[in-house]
Design a protein that fits this description.
Length: 253
């Protein structure tokens, strides 16, 4: 096996992980926006938010790893304290605040971290995700039966490619919009709320009645999440493989 092929397979594996994250984010935001904002092109909202939030989490994987267990414990305690029906807004508020506080502390204390670039990377993710999502929102107007998992795969591939193109410019020109404490707070809050949503889906899978009015949403997510993850894995893996085969360098952002 040649060195280039080994590099391509390794990069495909790394990007596949990001693709799975994208797929999970997409189906979560798609299902929620279909329920709360059905008149505003859920696929556009989902594609934009997925690109934005994935970039936000990716901006500091170290912080995401720190936030995840804290957010998990917080979410479980919050869900238990809420009684028989889970309050989505309350869960997001509590987990979000815990993530913001944790991320802010990280932003201040982690002097060698590049968390201060989180704002620029998030803008790059927003631009990439929004551009691709707009195109697919128009596509679904013409072909409403287009398979969702295939759309996620293609959107993931295109969003990742555009992010790679946009990120260097954004990091160079937009990395000082916020102080590190705010960058850490935003990244921590986004990661924490994502964990909270995942735990909500897990809990409502065991006790569907705890979802209350959100039961159709949580049911849809559980039905589609594996296909969404597969679509993201496929899109991310192809992106990483082709990037290496075309001899594009890893970006050190």
């Amino acid at each position: 096996m040649t060195h280039q092929l080994k590099e391509a397979l390794f990069r495909a594996a790394v990007w596949s992980f990001i693709g799975v994250l994208y797929g999970m984010l997409f189906i979560l935001t798609y299902s929620l926006s279909s329920h709360f904002a059905a008149d505003f092109y859920p696929i556009f909202i989902a594609g934009t938010l997925s690109g934005c939030i994935a970039a936000l989490i990716y901006s500091s994987m170290s912080l995401a790893a720190i936030v995840a267990p804290i957010a998990s414990v917080t979410a479980i305690i919050t869900i238990i304290s809420q009684g028989q029906t889970i309050d989505l807004a309350g869960l997001m508020l509590v987990t979000g605040l815990v993530g913001v506080v944790t991320g802010s502390i990280y932003g201040v204390k982690a002097k060698k971290s590049r968390i201060y670039r989180a704002d620029a990377k998030t803008i790059a993710g927003f631009l990439a995700g929004g551009s691709v999502a707009l195109g697919f929102a128009l596509l679904y107007e013409i072909f409403p039966g287009f398979p969702l998992y295939l759309a996620i795969a293609i959107m993931c591939l295109l969003t990742g490619s555009l992010y790679v193109a946009f990120a260097p410019f954004c990091v160079k020109h937009l990395n000082d919009l916020l102080p590190p404490v705010a960058d850490g707070g935003i990244a921590g809050g986004g990661s924490s709320m994502f964990v909270g949503l995942l735990l909500l889906i897990m809990v409502t899978g065991v006790t569907p009645e705890s979802a209350g009015a959100l039961e159709p949403v949580t049911t849809q997510i559980r039905e589609l999440i594996l296909l969404a993850m597969f679509g993201g894995l496929l899109g991310g893996g192809i992106s990483g493989f082709m990037s290496a085969m075309l001899r594009r360098q890893w970006q050190d952002l």
